Amino acid sequence: MPTEADFLREIKARSTDPVLRLVYADWLDEHGDARAQLVRVSEEMRTLPVFSDRYWELKPIRATLRKRFDPSWCKRLSYDGSAYEPVLAHGI
């Protein structure tokens, strides 16, 4: 059975793999860890155009969740706001 350290090591090695991050979220859920919600919200936001209604629904949720968890964990997973996707990646 994988440990959190195993997941974090794999996520570092495959940082752009959303499936791995969602499996990690499932693992966090199985261990009663509320950080799973931040993983899911952040990963969903990565798939959305910044101009979509859903993106703006999730943005304040993500901001609230970020405040609840260890900043070093958020930074390690690029959920601290330091990693930006191109705004026009989804077209205009």
Kindly list the characteristics that best describe this protein:
globular, mainly alpha, 92 residues
Q: What structural category arises from helix and sheet content?
A: mainly alpha
The residue-averaged pLDDT reads 90
Radius of gyration: 13 Å
Strand content: under 5%
The total strand number stands at 0
How far apart the termini lie comes to 44 Å
Low-confidence segments, ≥5 residues, pLDDT <50?
A: none
Helix content: 55-70%
What does this structure look like?
The protein has 92 residues and is mainly α. It contains five helices and no strands. Helix 1 runs antiparallel to helix 2. The longest helix is centred in the middle third of the chain and has 16 residues, at 53-68. The chain is globular, with a radius of gyration of 13 Å. The chain starts with a helix and ends in a 16-residue tail after the last helix.
